[in-house]
Amino acid sequence: MRAHGVGFRACTRGGLAPEPRPAAPIEIRATWKGGGEPVLVTADAAGEFDARLTVPSDTVPDDYDVTALCPVNSKLAVRAAFEVTPAPEPAALTLDPAEGAVGTRVAVRGSGFGGCSADGGQAGAVTLAWDGGPLPAVTPARIPVDAGAFTAGFTVPSGADAGAHTVTASCAGGEQVSVEQPFKVTAEPGPRPAVTLDPASIRAGGGPVDMAGSGFDCAQVALSWDGEKWATVAPAADGTFGARFDVPSDAAADSYTVRAECTDDPAKGAEAAFKVTGADPVPPTPTPTPATPTPTPPTPTPTPDPDPGPHPDTVPVGVVVGSGLLGAALLALAGFVFLSHGHRGPRWVRDHVGSRLRPAPAATDVTEPSGTGPPTRSVRLEPHPDPGDQTLKEEDP
User: Fold this and answer.
1) DSSP 298
2) CB 365 within 8 A of CB 355
3) Which among 82, 90, 86, 81 has a CA at the least distance from the CA of 61?
4) Do residues 108 and 151 touch, judged by C-beta distance below 8 A?
5) Distance between CA atoms of residues 116 and 93, nearest Å
6) How far apart are CA 132 and CA 134, in angstroms?
7) What angle do CA 333, 338, 344 make, to 5 degrees?
8) What is the pTM of this model?
9) 220 with 262: CB under 8 angstroms?
C-alpha cells in the first residue's frame, strides 16, 4: 500500500536552537498483528513524504492502524486506519463442450466476477466475445452476475474455421474482471439425426409401418405421431434405432408428422412426413356389350348350265316337251303366273295363251294386248331337255 504524509515540516529541525540541525527521519509504523519492522522515510522541505508498505501475506482480514511518528518531535504523530479484506476469488470460465463443429451449442459458466458492478453499486453483467469480436446468438442477451457467478450459452458461429478459438468473458462496461477460455472447432460436423419410414404412405384403414433412425447420440429417444408420444427407444452405440408402429384404423386421409427426438435435448431430433390416402375406389359395373351377330352366308344359287345346244337325240320344243294337250296346259299355267294381277279365269287364259307343237324355234306367243299401245307384259319360252312326264291339275279359284 502507499502512505502519503503532509505537515511534517517541523520534523526537519531538532529543538529550538537558532542553528538548524540535520533533518531527522520520520518513522512510519503500521500496527500489524504480530509486529513488523517500521519503515523510515524523510520528509522534504515542505514536510511531505511518500512511503510504500507491504501487507504481510499472513495478515488476516481486519482493521489496522498505520502510524507516522516524528522521532525528534513526539507531538508529530498521526494515525490512519487501513482495512485488510479477504482475497478475491479468482475469475474462472468453463465451456461445455470445449470443442465441436459449427452449430454446436455450448454452455458457459463463470465465477469470480464479484468485481463486476453497475452504477449505484449494484451487481453488473458480463459479455461474451469470440476471438475478440461480438458473439451472436448468446442466451440470455444480457448476462447478469449473481454473487459473482453467471451462466449462459451460445452457438458456434457458422463462419468459424476449424482450429483453436478464444471465448472471453468480461464485465459489461469495463474490464474490472476478464477471463478467457479456448474452444476448438472440429473440421467435420457430427452426424445429424434423421428418420425414415417404410412405407411412407398407406391407405385408410391402418396398418404397420417400420421406422428407422440414425445420428441420435443420446441415451433415450422419444417417438411421437402427429405430436402425441407413443414410445421411447434406446439407440445403439452408433446412434441408430429401429421401431414399428401401427397407423390407427380411424386415421383420416391426410398428412401426418412422425418425430424422433432425444429426451434430454428435444432440439436434437428429426421428423418425417407420413400420408394416409383414401380407400380404393369401387370399380364401376361393366355394361354388357351386345353380341355382334355372325352373318349367315347366303346359299349360292347354282348357275344354270349354259345352253349346250340341241342334243342329237332331243327335238327342241316351243313350250315344253310332251303331248299337245300337256303343252297347252303348261302355257296356260305360265300365263296365269305372269298375268294373274286380275286373277284371270281359265277362259281368259284360253283366249290369250297360244302354243306351237315341236319342232319350232323359241318365240314369244303369250302377250297381254293393250288397247292404247304395245303389250305391257310378255313371256319368252326357251327349249330345254325333256324333263319327263308332268301332271297338271287345274282348279278354279
Assistant:
1) P
2) yes
3) 86
4) yes
5) 15
6) 7
7) 70
8) 0.34
9) yes
What are the phi and psi torsion angles at 234 (to 5°)?
A: -105, 115
The predicted pLDDT at position 211 comes to: 95
User: What are the cell numbers at 216?
Assistant: 441420435
The answer to whether 25 and 11 have CB atoms below 8 angstroms apart is no
Return the pLDDT at 158: 82
Contacts 24+ apart (CB under 8 A), 199-202: 200/272, 200/273, 200/274, 200/275, 201/274, 201/275, 201/276, 201/277, 202/247, 202/274, 202/275, 202/276, 202/277
Please return the burial class of 318, using the count of CB atoms within 10 Å of its CB with bins 0-12, 13-18 and 19+: buried
Taking a C-beta distance cutoff of 8 angstroms, is the pair 268, 261 a contact?
Answer: yes
What confidence score (pLDDT) does residue 166 get?
A: 96
3-state secondary structure of 79: strand
Q: Report which of 143, 64, 76, 84 is spatially closest to residue 109, judged by C-alpha positions.
A: 143
Q: DSSP for 213-253? A: EE---SS-EEEEETTEEEEEE---TTS-EEEEEEE-TT--S
Show contacts of 82-91: CB within 8 Å, 24+ apart: 82/1, 82/30, 84/55, 84/59, 84/60, 85/61, 86/61, 88/112, 88/114, 88/115, 89/114, 89/148, 91/169, 91/177, 91/178, 91/179
Kindly list the distances between the CA atom of residue 62 and the CA atoms of 79, 114, 279, in Å, as whole numbers in the listed order: 16, 20, 87
Of 364, 282, 352, nearest to 318 (Cα)? 364
Write down the pLDDT at residue 222.
Answer: 95
- Given a cut of 50, the residues of the chain with pLDDT beneath it are 15-17, 311-326, 328-329, 331-332, 334-336, 338-339, 341
